[in-house]
Inverse folding.
């Protein structure tokens, strides 16, 4: 009698685990085990077909020496992109949100329009940009020609690839614009009224009220933006056709990992080492961002 | 010199002539604002304008770099794009999407119920742990996952794109669903418990039916995400027979000089139809979902 009751009690205490079990199991199988395996592979030569051999730190040395050229190139491409893309998106989507944050007839339709390009799948976007930016039969060069400019090289020259790629990402501003709008709508109207009475002009109001009150959203966009752009891959893959672009001008870090792992060499060990380095860089940067996040104002609720 | 600006409505009372000037100024301002909005909208509509115009052009018109097709009822490109291989990719995509839109809400609602309605030791830790996995970069897991799928013989099948859905559901989805379930009054489940119902029964009979709105949203988001997923298929599928639409369309048209922009855009538009319909049908909820995701994060 007593044993039966306690068994029932034990079941009711732990039955919650049954509900979260599938997801927890999933995290174990599809995230934790692969992460450990990846660390393990990074110390070996491994090509999937034969067993891992040659234990040591050689992969971590190789990436800086023998394979240093691609590694440094990918670091600089990814770094430059992140440093330009993240602030650019933050600022432009802020202006876009300000433009759309007015109570006017049809403003919701305009918001929807600005978000619309975000529903274009990466693959279709890739085909579209390559078609538009074709040097001979692309519409962009036709327009430039009509306006009396020289044809632009877009993805076909090393110097113009990165600006072109960044241009294509601007069509995705709608996503961050929505986050800005959500943040702007949370700023209490009394603050603006009080500042107006104190004689603060629009400029001062924007910098002293709007931006500080939106700092939590800015921080969120900053962190997710940095993490996301360091891992840029799909969007580049479709415009370069699976390579690093002209003269590796778009050899993003993850593209380098992909080529190392799934290219002809199948160097899974080296690729795992590369991916762990990226993981550590991301972890470190996230930590730094959170440590220096003192300027962020959180509403206490 | 700082002067105190009078309140707008005060102007009407104090000086009617100023009010008229204000109204004119306001109209001019509004018109300029709409012009600006129109210019910005044109920028964001541009990709769609190009896609639609290109898709109806003949090969000659594409080569001549025309801006508009001469015949807006020229469906040849769509016919050309909707070929046997497109149908094959479509079939694979439909299978993968169908499994995912059932499995994802199932696994994430089960998990959310555990976190929202049940008490067990280590609940807080498990929840934080689950959320933190959201931050882990996919790069670190993609290589070992590929190796695991090779060993299991799952590469070149739809299994890597479907099976994980039963064990996941996405941390953000679980988070949103837990929030939703917490909003369901305790009395409803408590009274059922007194009547002798167990948690599984409460989950199935009481909580799930009440969660319909959030489940619908998660299904729509999953549909759109899986339908357009390119990375998963790219890593695990090499054989054309198992390709889904994004990979298949990319594989077929990328760098293929046999097809011009018109056919490519027609294929792209065909591929986008289901998601576009869903987007317009659920735009309000989808946009709110994005906004909430940002505020909570």
């Amino acid at each position: 009698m007593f044993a039966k009751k306690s068994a029932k009690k034990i079941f009711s205490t732990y039955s919650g685990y049954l509900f979260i079990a599938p997801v927890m199991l999933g995290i174990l199988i599809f995230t934790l085990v692969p992460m450990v395996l990846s660390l393990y592979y990074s110390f070996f030569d491994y090509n999937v077909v034969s067993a891992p051999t040659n234990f040591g730190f050689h992969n971590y040395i190789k990436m800086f020496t023998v394979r240093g050229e691609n590694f440094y190139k990918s670091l600089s491409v990814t770094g430059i992109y992140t440093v330009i893309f993240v602030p650019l998106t933050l600022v432009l989507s802020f202006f876009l949100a300000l433009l759309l944050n007015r109570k006017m007839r049809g403003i919701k339709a305009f918001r929807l329009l600005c978000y619309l390009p975000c529903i274009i799948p990466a693959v279709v976007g890739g085909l579209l940009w390559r078609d538009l930016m074709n040097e001979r039969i692309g519409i962009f060069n036709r327009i430039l020609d009509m306006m009396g400019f020289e044809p632009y090289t877009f993805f076909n020259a090393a110097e113009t690839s990165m600006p072109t790629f960044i241009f294509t990402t601007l069509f995705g501003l709608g996503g961050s614009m929505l986050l800005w709008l959500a943040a702007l709508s949370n700023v209490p109207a009394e603050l603006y009224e009080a500042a107006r009475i104190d004689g603060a002009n629009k400029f001062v109001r924007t910098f002293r009220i709007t931006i500080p009150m939106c700092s939590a959203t800015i921080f969120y966009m900053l962190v997710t933006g940095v993490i996301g752009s360091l891992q840029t891959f799909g969007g580049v893959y479709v415009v370069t056709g699976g390579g690093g672009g002209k003269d590796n001008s778009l050899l993003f870090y993850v593209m380098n990992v992909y080529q190392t792992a799934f290219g002809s060499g199948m160097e899974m060990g080296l690729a795992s080492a590369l991916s762990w380095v990226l993981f550590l860089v991301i972890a470190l940067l996230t930590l730094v961002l959170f440590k220096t996040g003192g300027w962020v104002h959180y509403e206490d609720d | 010199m700082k002067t105190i600006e009078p309140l707008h409505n005060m102007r009407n009372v104090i000086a009617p002539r100023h009010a008229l000037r204000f109204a004119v100024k306001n109209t001019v301002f509004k018109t300029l604002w709409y012009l600006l909005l129109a210019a910005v909208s044109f920028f964001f509509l541009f990709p769609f304008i190009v896609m639609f115009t290109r898709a109806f052009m003949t090969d000659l018109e594409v080569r001549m770099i025309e801006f508009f097709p001469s015949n807006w009822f020229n469906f040849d490109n769509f016919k050309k794009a909707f070929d046997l291989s497109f149908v094959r990719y479509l079939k694979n995509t439909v299978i993968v999407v169908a499994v995912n839109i059932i499995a994802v809400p199932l696994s994430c609602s089960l998990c959310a119920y555990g976190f929202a309605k049940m008490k067990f030791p280590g609940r807080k830790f498990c929840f934080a742990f689950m959320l933190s996995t959201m931050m882990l970069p996919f790069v670190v897991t993609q290589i070992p996952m590929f190796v695991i799928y090779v060993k299991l013989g799952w590469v070149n099948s739809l299994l890597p794109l479907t099976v994980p859905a039963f064990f996941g559901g996405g941390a953000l989805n679980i988070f949103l669903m837990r929030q939703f379930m917490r909003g369901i009054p305790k009395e409803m489940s408590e009274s059922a418990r007194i009547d002798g119902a167990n948690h599984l029964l409460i989950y199935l009979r009481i909580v799930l039916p009440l969660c319909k709105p959030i489940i619908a949203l998660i299904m729509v988001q999953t549909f759109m995400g899986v339908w357009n997923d390119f990375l998963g298929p790219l890593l695990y599928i090499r054989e054309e027979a198992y390709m889904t639409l994004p990979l298949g369309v990319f594989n077929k048209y990328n760098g293929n000089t046999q097809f011009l922009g018109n056919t490519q855009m027609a294929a792209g538009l065909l591929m986008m139809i289901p998601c576009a319909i869903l987007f317009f049908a659920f735009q309000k909820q989808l946009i709110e979902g994005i906004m909430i995701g940002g505020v909570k994060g």
